[in-house]
Structure formats: structure tokens, C-alpha cells
Amino acid sequence: MSPEQHHRHSIFCILPPHLLEAIMKNGSDAQRAMAEQTLRRAAAMRTARAAVQAEQRAAPPAAAMGAPHKQRAVFDASHTENIPGARVRAEGQGPTGDAAVDEAYDGLGATFDLYWDTCRRNSVDGAGMELDATVHYGTDYDNAYWNGERMIFGDGDGRLFNRFTIAVDVIGHELTHGVTGHTANLDYNGQSGALNESVSDVFGSMVKQYAATPRQDAVHADWLIGAGLLRPGVKGVALRSMKAPGTAYDDPVLGKDPQPAHMKDYVTTTSDDGGVHINSGIPNKAFTNLAISLGGYSWEKAGQIWYRTLTDTRLAAASQFMDFARVTVLNALQLYGNEGKRSVTEAWSQVGINVP
Amino acid sequence: MRIQFETLGGFAYFPGLHRPLRIDTEQLTTLQAGEIESMVRASHFFDQSDSIRPVGAADYRSYRITVEDGEKSHTVKVVESAADRSLLALLAYLRALGAEGPTQ
After folding, report:
1. What ipTM was assigned to the predicted interfaces of this complex?
2. Among partner residues B9, B12, B81, which is closest to A12 by beta-carbon distance?
3. Domains in chain A, CATH or no CATH each
4. Are A280 and A173 within 8 A, CB to CB?
5. pLDDT at residue B100 in the model
6. B12 versus A33: which is more confidently predicted?
């Protein structure tokens, strides 16, 4: 087994700060030294990350202005939970015949292309970062997630869910969590977390529309997240609907899609990190309203406003829906004048967010 | 021993899959009860603390587990990628029981 297969990212290995502080107070000499070193390393990581983010948001890195650097790698966890697993396809290599591997590879490419072609963003970090995905994670694993540095995909249980690489918008969604982490870094809780989720749905959906043959415009797109993921027999069409939040599924096992489409139905909950996958329906609907009202391809205008907002230094990590909406209006005005401002203001107003 | 187990997070929120699972080992077979109690002991569950939130991560799953054993009661929220191996074994066992739940 390669050393890579034993790797676990350091963010998962550090103890909670309060525990480290207790060890420093009460532990043996060796334990205190370990705790001090860990706290120092964590502080250095935070400082380095903040410095990189500040630099990236203030001015795109030089690499972002030069040639695009598309560098993909797909790894196979072979149904274990060891990350990253064995490298099975690198940039430029042909299809493997393994659907999950090849879908992940193609989806990484489609996401890179959307960001570069429409936003001139050179990969997740804006500086040509390698795009990595691990497939065949775990056994009957019904999930896909971003671990802070790579995408992880389960194969689904075959009963409720298919493999999570099957929908290209899911791949675009996960990589966009990486983009958000390098830009606005929206806190993953409550409204800022729902915005984090919504931005991933917005760009994931645009990846799907951009990668389609022929490309889909906003009016003809289905705006579904995870179409094809639900197994036959499950009563639903996808995991979420951006155009009609709350209507993606209604199934005896899964329950009913809980997403609201308007602030009057906002869900207050402690589950799901404060409803990040629930209330994201509201900004999702606002974006869809805007894209459809503007017509044409979603990435031409609506996507530009959202990308400008995500990379705007006025957008704080703890931003609430109203904060985000305000910055979209400012960017719409700057990009498309009063007509753009009116369109964005109206799109938010339709979901109950009235920007003064 | 009584255990309450709840799945949190993931790529999407499915109300039907996030219902808490409650297990009373007295209601299980002797074999199952013994396995769970052994895994709880092996994981030093009552000494476990909450996982820290993974920096920059999203859509990850976490679990809230409460174990009551006699007069002792303890709750932890753990992120699956951050849990130690003994706790992962307990999580896998509870997940398997949870997967059986909705079909019953």
C-alpha cells in the first residue's frame, strides 16, 4: 500500500484548542511540548491561509492571468475510507472504462473550463491548483463531499442512490466549495452556510449547462441538482430544484424535499449546520429568477454578477442573505448599469429579500 | 445501555434519513448487544469529545451520538473523517442498524 493511502489531512488530526490548552496546563513535559507544537502549527496554518486568501481576493495571482493550468488526477479508494487511494488517471491519460473514474475526470475538466472560459479563473485557487478527486470511497457510501483539499465520491448504496459522480453538477458543486474556501470563505453555518451551499449549486448548475451539447440557456435548463442520482423507484427527480425549491422529491423513505423558495418559509433549525442545505433554496431561487429574466446563457450575466460577488472583499465570511444580496446589487450596477441593478433587486425581492 | 444516533450533514438534507435512531441493547439479541457494548468500551466513548469542524470542508457527514449506561450519559458530535478507528467501528455498526431502520 502506498504512503498516500495512509494519509489523513492535518485538519483532521489536530485536537480541539480547548483540549490542547488543558494539556498544556496539566500534561506531562512531553505532552505539553506536543500540545504547544500543535497549537503553534494550527496558528501558523490559520495565518498562512488568511494571507493567501487576502492576496487572492485583492489581486488575482499572476498564474490566473497567464495560460490556464488544467491538471487533474483521480484516485480510487477501492471501497475503503483511506484517502486519497491509488492514483488511477492523471491529466492527459485516456478513459479507464471505470464509469466513476471517467465521470470524475470529465467533471473536473468541465468545471475547470467553466471557471476559465467564463470567469478567467485558473482552477480552484486561481493559481492552477491540481484538481483531485477520490472515487469508490467507502462501502455503500451515499455522499459526496469536499474535505478542504479534494473531492470525495461514494458509489451510493444502489438502493436509494446511484454513484455520486453521475451528475456533473455535483462535481461542479464540490469544486466550488474549494473556490469559496479560497475567496469569500463563507462560514459553514446558518445563512452564511446556506449561501456557501447556494453558490456551489449555482456554479454546479452552470457547469452542467455549459458542458451540455448543445449548451443550455437559462430558460431551457432544468436547474436540477443531482438529476440521475436517485435510483428507479425513489419518488423524485433530483436532490434539489433551484427553479422550484421544495419539489425535487417526496418519497416514503427520503421524506419530502424541505427547501423553501421564499423568506416567509425560512427554516430555523440546528440540524444540517443550521439548515445550510435547506435554506439554500432561497438564494438558489433568486439566482434562477435573475438568470431566466435576463435570458441567454446563465454564465453571461447572472453568473458574472455572482462570481464578482464571491470574490468581492466587501463580502464577509459571516454574511447573511441580505449582505450577499446587497453586494450582488452593487456588482450588477457596476457591470450592467441601472438595468442590471433593477433586475437583481427584483430577483431578490421575489424571494422576500428587499434590498433598500 | 441505550444509544441515540443521529446523522447530520451530507450533500443534501433528507428528512427521512436524518431521523434519530434509538437503540436499547435490552431489545437486541445477546450477540448484537454484546457487540455494541464492547465497541462502546473499546472506543472509550465516555472520554470522547466533539470533533472540531473541518476547516474549509463542506458536505461532510457528522453524527451525534448519545450513550446512556446506568447513571452515566454522554453525547458527542463527531465528523466521520476525523473519528478514531474504534469510534469508526461503532459508527459503522450504528449506521448499518440505521440503514435497516427505514425499511422496517
Report:
1. 0.80
2. B81
3. 3-50 (no CATH), 65-166 (3.10.170.10), 190-349 (1.10.390.10)
4. no
5. 58
6. B12
Whether pLDDT at A54 is above 70: no
Selected for mutation to probe chain B from A6, A12, A46 (highest B CB count within 10 Å) is A12
What average pLDDT does the segment A201-214 reach? 98
Give me B57's grid cell. Answer: 470542508
Give me the amino acid identity at A219: V
Mean pLDDT, rounded, for A110-126: 97
Domain coordinates of chain B in residue numbers?
2-103
> A275 and B13 in contact by Cβ < 8 A?
yes
Beta strand spans in chain A (E) = 72-76, 86-90, 131-137, 144-146, 151-154, 224-225, 240-241, 250-251, 255-256
- pTM of the entire structure? 0.83
Mean pLDDT of A276-283: 97
Which pairing describes strands B2-9 and B21-24: parallel, antiparallel, or unpaired? antiparallel
pLDDT at B3: 93
Note the pLDDT of residue A48. Answer: 45
Q: Which of B10, B49, B50 sits opposite A143 (nearest CB)?
A: B10
With CA atoms as reference, report the closest residue to A251 among A159, A113, A353, A188: A159
Cβ atoms A277, B12 nearer than 8 A: yes
A-interface mutation test, from B6, B7, B13, most A Cβ less than 10 A away: B13
Check CB contact under 8 Å for B13 and A258: yes
A36 to chain B nearest CA, in Å?
18
Among the partner residues B13, B17, B60, nearest to A145 by beta-carbon distance: B60
- Residue numbers in B near A157 (CB within 8 A): 99
- Asked if residues A112 and A174 have their Cβ atoms less than 8 Å apart, the reply is no
DSSP string over A73-138: EEEE-TTSS-SS-EEEEETT----S-HHHHHHHHHHHHHHHHHHHHH---STTSS---EEEEEEES
- Distance CA(A222)–CA(A207), nearest Å, equals 13
A29 pLDDT band (50/70/90 cuts)?
Answer: low
Which residues in A lie closer than 8 A to residue B54 (C-beta atoms)? 11-12, 147-148
